[in-house]
């Protein structure tokens, strides 16, 4: 099976800029210009995805029950604006889960 990736996602590990989680760049471009920037906290399910003009194109937020009780860690809303393909935004959520999900936490 041939693999032809459309984009790369680079995880940010800069403690000075803890707000920025990852940058999404198109594959095959000479300049590594960011196509999307993801900011916030994935572990808290509170993230915003911005396009290259810093317009919010998608939002991840924790879902709560009607009585205000938080549901499980893996229950969230993905609010997608018409300017981004929903399949790309969901693919980015899956990638974020691989980067920052529960299996990435160390227990002491």
UniProtKB/TrEMBL annotation:
Family: Belongs to the LOR family.
A UniProt-annotated Pfam family: LOR
Name of the protein this chain belongs to: LURP1-like domain-containing protein
InterPro entries in alphabetical order: LOR, LOR_sf, Tubby-like_C
